[in-house]
Amino acid sequence: xxxxxxxxxxxxxxxxxxxxxxxxxxxxxxxxxxxxxxxxxxxxxxxxxxxxxxxxxxxxxxxxxxxxxxxxxxxxxxxxxxxxxxxxxxxxxxxxxxxxxxxxxxxxxxxxxxxxxxxxxxxx
Length: 124
Fold this sequence. Notes:
The protein is mainly β. The protein has strands at about 5, 10-15, 20-25, 35-40, 45-50, 60, 70-75, 80-85, 90-100, 115, 120-124. Strands 2, 4, 5, 6, 9, 10 and 11 form a seven-stranded mixed β-sheet that branches. It has a four-stranded antiparallel β-sheet with strand order 1-3-8-7, with no helix packed on it. The termini are far apart.
């Protein structure tokens, strides 16, 4: 069982920055790949970015490339999502999720464990 807790969400003006954190269970964190997803009201949950178990590989959805950066510190059992140049359309609940497979995964169905989500609101 992998438990995930997100933090760092909030209200920010367009063009601003936020850093989200996803802290996981100590014993299993190094063995899971992590992804960030988001869900806006009335929309389906969508993939944002993912990072491999070691942190050597990452993948970004086109709409966040050059603005968001995913990283992980396995010594702290934490994955980070640095979000810069935020836009109102980035407003959503952001979820981190974990999977036990090797490599990167981009589909909701490929992730076994989910956090409770953290709200990000970007005002215009």
